[in-house]
Design brief:
By secondary structure, the chain is of the alpha/beta class. Helix content is about 35%, strand content about 25%. A hairpin with a 2-residue loop joins strand 1 and strand 2. The structure holds adenosine-5'-triphosphate and magnesium ion.
């Protein structure tokens, strides 16, 4: 079954077709890679799939549900969709710990701060921060973290949305927009193992990534975009050997 499907999806920005008639499917419980040259529409696709941007035309289908003309950002948690950002977004003036606490309550940033003594929440925060190696940094402001630590904190935030009874529905679809970019090998290892665990837990992962070794290691299926269109798809090894795919990258 498909976790998400798009049909003839378009997203235009004043004349630029960032997504240009894209029909793709992301299979439930699998890791699907999305690759393509800079500007080929990968982030825009994630923005539309996560409800941050309305499509210009076309539809998407989540699970076995009806066709939707886009998704409201407020509905993404309900649909179990969560994402990370290519340009990491954190609550800069809050601690590492509070950055996780806020996602554990659906109400508001303030509500979560007042609920900080909830034992269940604290256990969850400790678990996810330990998982990415940031528990020792819990009292620091997000603003003071290194580039790599910021990316790890974003991963922890996404993990906090699994088995959370406080935010809509347990997250089942994870969209990662270049989570490995610029990271040291030790940090890459952590995120690789997180993605493998998500897959083992039956989650659906959509992974935008430029490193083809990581794509080969992690992905069951690969989608190649070029100028907002589908250039190729299939098994990673097979797709990456295609002449048109190599040319799209060399022509960058
Ligand atoms: N908010 C926006 N306003 C105007 N144009 C945009 C906007 N977002 C993206 N674009 C344009 O849409 C096209 C696709 O951009 P997008 O960021 O989706 O590409 P990408 O594949 O993620 O690239 P990269 O590999 O560099 O991250 C580009 O031409 C970009 O300039
Ligand atoms: Mg991008």
């Amino acid at each position: 079954m498909d976790a998400i499907r798009t049909k003839e999806l378009h997203k235009h920005f004043s004349g630029v077709a960032a997504i240009d008639g894209l029909s793709v499917a992301f299979e439930q419980g699998k890791v699907t890679g999305v690759v393509g040259p800079n500007g080929s529409g990968k982030t825009t696709l994630v923005n539309v799939l996560s409800g941050m941007l309305p499509p210009t035309a076309g539809v998407m289908v989540i699970g076995g549900e009806r066709e939707m003309k886009g998704l409201r950002a407020s509905d993404t948690a309900y649909h179990g969709i969560t994402r990370t950002f290519q340009e990491v977004r954190l609550f800069e003036q809050m601690t590492v710990l509070d950055n996780i606490l806020v996602v554990l309550t659906e109400r508001s940033v303030w509500g979560s701060l007042f609920e900080r003594h909830n034992a269940g929440h604290m256990k969850k925060v400790e678990t996810v921060l330990t998982r990415v190696g940031l528990w020792e940094k819990r009292s620091q402001l997000a603003h003071n973290l290194s580039y790599g630590q910021r990316k790890l904190l974003e991963i922890a935030r996404v993990l906090a949305m699994t088995h959370s009874d406080h935010i809509g529905q347990d997250a089942s679809i994870f969209l990662f927009d270049e989570p490995f970019a610029g990271l040291f090998p030790e940090m890459i290892k952590v995120i690789v193992s997180v993605i493998k665990e998500l897959k083992e837990a039956g989650k659906t992962v959509i992974l935008i990534e430029h490193n083809m070794n990581l794509i080969r290691e992690l992905c069951d299926h690969l989608i190649v975009m070029d100028s907002g269109k589908l250039l190729a798809e299939g098994k990673p090894d097979h797709v990456l050997a295609k002449r048109e795919v190599i040319e799209a990258y060399l022509g960058e």
